[in-house]
Structures are given as structure tokens and as C-alpha cells.
Amino acid sequence: MTAIRVLSSVLLLVLMESGALCARRFRGGRNPQPRRAPPPPTYRSDRGDTTESFPLDFTAVEENMDNFMTQVKNLAQSLYPCSAQKLDYDMKLNYLENTTATCNDGSPAGYYLKESRGSRRWLIFLEGGWYCFNKENCDSRYETMRRLMSSSKWPKTKTGTGILSPLPEENPHWWNANMVFVPYCSSDVWSGATPKTEQSGYAFMGSLIIQEVVKHLLNKGLDNAKVLLLAGSSAGGTGVLLNVDHVADLLEGLGHTGIQVRGLSDSGWFLDNKQYHCSDCVDAVSCSPTETIKRGIKYWGAVVPERCRQTHEGEEWNCFFGYRVFPSIKSPVFVVQWLFDEAQLTVDNIQLTGQPVQEGQWRYIQNLGIELRNTLKDVPAMFAPACLSHEVITRNYWIDVQVKGTSLPRALHCWDRSLHDNRNNKAPPKGCPVHLIDSCPWPHCNPTCPTIRDQFTGQEMNVIQFLMHMGFDVQKMAQQQGMDPSKLLGMLSSGS
Description:
Blueprint: H1 2-19, H2 65-83, E1 90-95, E2 110-114, E3 121-126, H3 135-144, E4 157-159, E5 178-182, H4 206-218, E6 227-233, H5 235-253, E7 260-266, H6 289-300, H7 306-311, H8 322-325, E8 333-336, E9 340-341, H9 342-347, H10 359-376, E10 382-384, E11 388-389, E12 402-403, E13 406-407, H11 408-423, E14 435-437, E15 452-453, E16 460-461, H12 463-469, H13 474-481, H14 485-494
Parallel strand pairs: 3-5, 3-6, 6-7, 7-8, 8-10, 9-11, 10-14
Antiparallel strand pairs: 1-2, 1-4, 2-5, 12-13, 15-16
């Protein structure tokens, strides 16, 4: 027992000394404040120890060694990003050595990297940001959103949030992975393989940029990886669906057969449905999704997954829509999709500008949720909350959203475990769901949805206020559902 006490004291002294080097930051809620740099440690004037305290129970160690070691492990995890990474939370910019893979304007493409030495897990994130599909709207995009077409003014560092965060309280299962953020500067949904020409005026090399980033990272430790998660949001989420098998084939062709390549597509599962009302096809926002992709795929010289290309030969534009390309993908992919995606509603010409929606618009919005559910029902691993939003995995509040009591980080952890167990011929873990989709039929009927604010007053709205704001008729909807209006309001309030 004396030896255990001595060991415990030494362990705690070492960890508390490490604790003096690091001041913890805490995750914001669903209304995050701007991120601040980690504060320096604060010391007492009378002695050298820090004012930071950690909730460890020192009593009865010898009678409950398992509990004690759990506390030590938790403390060590909280200190690791600070001590091992020397308080360096930022990802640093690296330009590609292969200068033939460029941004739209010919400037060098690149990526941001935060290494986690000792970790064999890598996360490569593809940024989103719409696209352009002809000379005119690409010229306009270059004038208004140049950072999405050029690397000339990229900052030297970038701080990761959500699944890219190095903080375990914000990113409980991927915080200690090697983090890579690939800026979007090709305007082609990460599909192009065409250098700059006089006719187009721009290069479209999204697919080649991904391949060059992967090759470049092999010299920085990726060659020793066990798992590579290719993730992305919006256009980056669609880019994951288009490129995850390309990445797996590339690594296998280079002899790195031990790396398990997986995909995480966030808000990139678009539908090629008919718009609420048609309009002139001027840019990516006003055109129907099908029309813009049909035009863009030629302009970009786009590359699509080979198996999907064979299935839709002559109509390769189909491969840009999740439910059409997914059956052809060999790599494991986890799909995250809001059932009422704001970007989908925008391209469908449903403008939620603060005015109550018309009855026809309301029916269209409800039908969108139904259609998305139908396209996702056969996806083994997915997370689909009934919320009106767009993108989530890099938001500070990504840990707060739940479907049927399970958070997104928890669902991703369950997916990791199920893939690991499957490779080892084990039964999937019980009580660890990976197919999660809301069944309630209205936008924001899930009480954990991100907070919505009134566009005019800036005030937060609860689900009932939001639905009323959109023109939701409680009396009429209750009649359609065959229930009392007060009961319907109660269900809405509880998120039932």
C-alpha cells in the first residue's frame, strides 16, 4: 500500500506540474463567441504553482485504483494538446511543391497542417463554397470571392474548430489526430483536372489538388497512418463523395495498402429535384442544380468516380448527387445531412428572407424533408437532424446536436468502432447507433437544432415561434394530424 501511495503522489505531482504549463479553454454553446487565443498561465505571487485547479479525488486511492487511474487519464488527455503540442493550436500553411496543381487564377494550391506526433490517424478536410460554371460567373466570383479562387492572400495559420479542433472538450474523439485543412480555390466541387487556358481564363484542378495534397503528406507522416478520414462540408462534402475512392486507389497504387481510407460528407448530399419556381440561369444560386452541374462538368473537365461514370455514361452529371453516386462508392462513408438544408432550399428558389412562407412553399419544404429521408434510408452510416441549417462538422456547436439522444461525435465514434470490429470479425457494439435520422416532419422540430434568430430583431426564437414566423398554421396542421391543437403545440415544444 505504501508503494501505491508513493506512486500516486509522484504521478499527481508530475501531472500537476504539467498542468501549470497549460490553461484550459472551454467549448462554447450553440451560440459560440469568437475564439480567443489560449490564455497564458496565471501564477500566484507567493509561490510558483498555478491558480488552475483540477477536480481530482485523492482519497482512498488504494481502495479504488481503477477510478484513480481514470481520473489521471482524463487529466492527461486534457493536458496533452498543451504539453505535447506546446500550446500550438494552429494549423500552418504549406504550398504544394507540384506547381502544376493550381488555384483558379494559377496561384499555388496548398493546405494547412497541424501534426500530432505519435498519432496514426489523419483527417483531411475539404472546404466548401459553391462554384462557378462559365466565364461570366467565374469572373464575377473572382471579383467578389477571390479567396475561393486564389491563394494570394491566404493567412499563414488557421485555427481548427469542430471536428478540426485540438481540444477534447470540443472534439472528443478526433482531437489528437493529424489535422489537415485544404482551402477551396478551384470552384469545381473538387472535381476538375483542367489547367488554365486562354479560352476559359481559369484552371479547374480540384481533383488533382486533393491527390497532390495526399502525396505531399506522405512525406510528413501519412505513410505511417492507420486511418485517413477524408471529410468536407457543402461543396467539400460532395467532393468527398467524388474523391474518396480516388484517394484510396492512389494510396494503394503507391504501395500504402495498410491505410484505411474513409469518407465523411457533411451537407453535400444534394437533390436534383425540380425547383419551386424556375428562374433565369445566371449563377450557381439561381440555376437548378442539374443545369449548373451539366454546364460545369464540361467547363471544368470534371473527373467522376469510374464506377459511377460507367453507370451513367454520357450523363456523368448524375455522379454529383449523393443518392446517385453513393451506390458506386467502395470506401466506407458517413453522411451528415440536415433534412432541411438551407443551400438546397436556396437553389430550389425557396427564399427564407424573414417573411412568412406561402402555403405552397411550406408544402415544398415539408416534401424536401420527405425526399431526403427516402434517399438516405439505405445509407448504413448517417446522421440527419430535422433542422434548417447548412454545414455542421466544423461548427463549435456540432457536439450539441442530437438525433434520438445520440450526438454526432458519438455516432462517428460508434461508426469507427463498428468498422474496427468488422475488420476483426467481431459483432458490432450494442447501444452504439450509426443510422440516425429524425422522424419529426417540420424544420427545427428537433429541440437540439442550432439556434435560429429573427432576421429583423436578432432575438432567439424557439421552435413554435420559428414555425409561426414561417407561416405555420397550428390549427390546420393539427386537423390534418387528427389531434388537438394544444397537444400538437406540446409535442412541438418537447421536440416529439
